[in-house]
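ASSEMBLY PREDICTION REQUEST
Request ID: AP-0331
Submitted by: J.K., bench scientist
Number of chains: two
Total residues: 446
Priority: normal
Notes: Please return the full assembly, not individual chains.
Input sequences:
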Amino acid sequence: MTAQVPVVEATPTTSMIKTLGIVATVCGLIIVGAYQGTYSAVAANKKIAIERAVFKVIPGSKNISEFYAMPNGIAPAAGETPPGAVKFYAAYDANDRLTGVAAEAGAKGYADVVRILYGYSQDCRCIIGIGVVSMRETPGIGDKILTDRQFLANFTALDVKLNADLSALANAVKTVKHGTKSHAWEVEAISGATVTSKAVGKGINDSAQSLLPKLVPQIEKLRSRQS
Amino acid sequence: MTLPGQQEQKLSMDTFLEGLWRQNPTFVMVLGMCPTLAVTVSAVNALTMGLATTIVLVFSCWLISLLRKLVPKEVRIATYIVIIATFVTAVDYLIQAVSLALYDALGAFIQLIVVNCIILGRAEAHASKHPPLVALTNALGMGAGFTIGLFALGAVREILGSGSLFGLSLFGADFQPWVVMILPPGGFFVLGAWLLLFAWWKRRKGGRALIAEGQHHGA
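STATUS: Completed
Returned structure:
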């Protein structure tokens, strides 16, 4: 006697497609619902995060406005970043007077790209503060750029003057070994965290070289806040 | 889809407790090690990751259980993954709405919940074979077990690696943190220590039971 092989009924193709279609539709609705439901809270959180970061690097600020610096002028930021444009934030005090300009800079550190925000003041033509946007540097070593007072003192008045024809920085920002800083445009590295320190210096130099020649000739237009 | 010969489990206290202790995802099944080792550098990160996984686990298992008789077995894995990915996306938005700092700290590990084997494992092994309430209760227990597991790692790593708990300094300025604990090897050290502790405790319990049994037979 041969053993009876149980007959397994094949699932119809339409049933499989129907099930997948229904599940995809239900899931689509849930995702869109979650996106719509959280959109305003996420946008508000992002705005608060940017404001906090800018206020930290430009003391005395109360409001910010976003702009693009382009080779042919400055325009309020909206939508996609146009090619060749650099985004920056203009910060204003309670009387809507310009306190400074903040922009993002980034360069490869020890573990990943170190992204920072720096504040620029036109009065001293220097960088007056930095804050870290994101980094994955070694805890206890690379992350000293957040806490090392001597290192942070580099950025209370870091010289980023432009040259005579306003086409580039008069002196490129450079990171030098600990204890060898002799010029206002040099960044003194943290001993033992040279790679991360250099990333900060290089990031600022690259960003300032690209932003300031476009921004400084137009900065008078930003002196007071237009709402 | 209920496989032939598979009994639907009745709702009991054990449905919930299973995940907390007997089948704890972290310490017994040793599943989901990727987020367990990567995000547990602080207690807050660990708790958030645990809660996010629990939310995804509970909703996915509930929906999968609800649809279990409608989903043909040929397309079940695709269906489960789509459902899990949906709830992960929703949780991703939710965390961004609650705190961007937390969202940045957890990084890609929130999106990686989609491929967390605890969730797909529960969907396949439990939710697809049991009614919604049982599946939901079991998922809640598993999620709580996973959260406790992550917190056990996160708390120890933060205390030793940063000298604080929930960001509050515990030992004062003189404490020299064991930086290795918040680096990747620290995750392995602490997990190893916890597993060792549980193994020792289990063996001790087993030994006691054997002695008790011996005394019982001798009497």
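REVIEWER COMMENTS: Residues 13-57 of chain A form the longest helix (45 residues).
SIGN-OFF: pending second reviewer
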